[in-house]
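Fig. S4 source data, part A: sequence.
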Amino acid sequence: REFGEEAMNSIQMSSEEKKRMEKELDELFATGREIFRGYVDDPRNTDNSWMETVAFNFHDEDGSCLGKINLCAGDDAMNVRWTDLSGTLDLYASHVDFLEEVAKFHNASW
């Protein structure tokens, strides 16, 4: 639901469009592979509180689902776009580590 609201502006979709989108995304998101679970290095961490996360990879090998999606920022999202992965991306906290793991798993360039 969150992906639909933030990346596809599903709040503005008709109920028919929203049902079709939810069905396609449910199929994709049912096949996720856990990449990481646990503590992450984050500038907000302190001795008394810290960030933990779970990162999943949802891979659409042939583009049959994600290839049909026109990204459109919705709800409280400011910008949304597809981005090529590389080790030079300037990402927050440990996010680049998660993407590197995904690239290695799929034998993709990094």
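Fig. S4 source data, part B ends here. The mean pLDDT is 85.
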